[in-house]
Amino acid sequence: MPEIRLDHCVIAVSDWERSNAFYRDVVGAELIELEFGRYAYRLGQQQLNVHGPGSTPFPRARRPVEPGNSDLCFVWPGSPAEAVEHLERLGVAVEEGPVARTGARGPATSVYFRDPDGSLLEFMSYDAA
Question: I want to staple 83 with a disulfide (CB 3.0 to 4.6 A). Which of 8, 22, 104, 123 is the partner?
Fold first, then answer.
């Protein structure tokens, strides 16, 4: 079977301006402006498609994701201490961590925080695992 990889997943936000700034500044996403005032957040070769105010994309899940319902993990390119420093510098509270976890590439160390709507986000570092 050929290798299957994740291209994008969907999150929902309640405020475009606030969420765009957060995902750009905190997560490092490139903002992709789409038709009808919608956005997507591109991170390298992956993308978060975003459902937000005024958007009703079709097709969608039987029970569409709502703001604050996501749980996403991002690979952090540095040490866990650098992830904490990055979040603190931007005024984002660390909810938990650094803590030992296991990711797709094996042992790692994670730092947890929340986006403006309350979705749980994770920076996972394989550097110091």
Answer: 123
